[in-house]
Design brief:
With 150 residues, the protein is mostly helical. Helices cover 75% and strands 0% of the residues.
């Protein structure tokens, strides 16, 4: 089943079970997917990979909002944002652990023969396709920087 269809099916199940958090989160996710589909010159159907990118972007928004609410002393709103992020995480591929990410970056450094911080873009081009959606760009960039500095 396509990811978008799975989201719709789960939204209907949440509606029937009166799970407000899940229902509102899935509605928001489907709305973001629809917005992405109609953006541009012509409407199109998103592939599962593109849907995952939209969900990852929405999950990142939830994490950032939770941090902002937390720093502003609004714990109840931060908890709600984290709960929404948790619902979205169920539909995203498992995130890479630090060891796995370090190994991928190490392999990319060996493959590209890059040395020094000026080669970061070169290494990122090799790493990005391998991690696609399984690690945040900031984490990847930090690991590349760390290994290039060694």
């Amino acid at each position: 089943m396509a990811l978008k269809e799975q989201l719709r099916t789960d939204m209907v199940a949440a509606l029937k079970s009166k799970d407000e958090l899940r229902l509102s989160t899935l509605r928001m996710a489907l709305s973001a997917i629809t917005t992405e589909e109609v953006a541009g010159k012509s409407a199109r159907e998103l592939s599962d990979d593109e849907v995952v990118k939209v969900l990852a972007r929405e999950a990142k928004k939830r994490r950032e909002a939770a941090e902002a609410f937390e720093s502003a002393g609004r714990a109840e709103l931060a908890a709600k944002e984290r709960a929404e992020g948790g619902v979205l995480d169920e539909y995203l591929p498992a995130q890479l652990g630090d060891d796995e990410l370090a190994a991928i970056v190490r392999a990319a450094l060996a493959e590209s023969g890059a040395t020094g911080p000026q080669a970061m873009g070169q290494v990122m081009k090799v790493v990005q396709p391998q991690i696609a959606g399984r690690a945040e760009g900031g984490r990847v960039a930090a690991e590349v920087r760390r290994q290039l500095a060694e």
